[in-house]
Amino acid sequence: MSESDPRATSVRLVLVDDHAMFRSGVKAELRAMPPGSAGWVPEIVGEAPDVDSAIAVIREHTPDVVLIDVHLPGGMGNGGVDVLHGCRGLTTAAGAPVRFLALSVSDAAEDVIAVIRAGARGYVTKTISGSDLMRAIRRVADGDAVFSPRLAGFVLDAFGAAAGEIAEVDEELDRLSAREREVMRLIARGYQYKEVAKELFISVKTVETHVSSVLRKLQLSSRHELTAWAAGRRMI
Predict the structure, then answer these.
(1) Which residues pair with 66 in a beta bridge?
(2) 23 located within any domain
């Protein structure tokens, strides 16, 4: 079946990577691949080079799968994790969740753990072949979790080694609402209340309320302690 064959279903994709040449290469590779055994073709509906434009494009197109690099400029400095947080809860026109597949040169433990915890369904490295990438996209679109073969064992080891730390952080973070977490991270990075309010499109009074709630829930007494708490957990 060709890309124009009406029998071929499509998977709608958004590509997020800060290197235009890499995005062009991925597009060319995917478009050159024949449809998979189930008869599907990639339909690339958008692309973006940074966090802010990625969130805008993904929200506009609500694709089936987002291929996303881990390290991206913009946002709050957390790269692909910021994009995942900014698109949390999005669904496609068919009602399925928008799913994310990390495609990165990095196989560092902190990158893998961060992006999977943020909600990505898989993580593959840029050494992956075109055919394997096609299969990974299809599986993620179907709701499966996918990792590069070399990363599968590594991911288990990484989560096992960090289990105690992750459990501790999660337990404390679970006390905070999503908005409180956003406020907490900005305050910990040194933002003033007015800057937080502008960044999150809320009032200064609301920021003050959230900060007070965060300090109370985490049993902290000052912004300084909050910054130290976040820095100790590598959340800044």
Answers:
(1) 14, 100
(2) yes
3-state secondary structure of 120: coil
Give yes or no for residue 65 having a pLDDT over 80.
Answer: yes
Question: Domain boundary residue among 136, 160, 184?
Answer: 160
Domain count of the fold of the chain: 2
Distance CA 142, CA 10 (A): 12
Structure tokens at 159: 């989560």
Work out the average pLDDT over 10-20.
Answer: 95
CA distance 8 to 34: 10
Three-state SS sequence of 43-105 = EEEEEECCHHHHHHHHHHHCCCEEEECCCCCCCCCCCHHHHHHHCCCCECCCCCECEEEEEEC
Share of the chain above pLDDT 70, in %: 82
Q: Judge if 121 and 68 occupy the same domain.
A: yes
Residues spanned by the domain of 221: 175-232
How far is residue 77's CA from residue 166's CA, in Å, rounded to a whole number? 21
Residue 100: give its domain's CATH number: 3.40.50.2300
Indicate whether 155 and 202 sit together in one domain.
Answer: no
Q: What is the pLDDT of residues 100-158, one digit of tens each?
A: 999 998 877 678 778 887 889 999 988 888 888 998 999 999 888 888 766 665 555 55
Q: What is the CA radius of gyration of the chain?
A: 19
Tell me which residue has tokens 């073709």.
Answer: 41
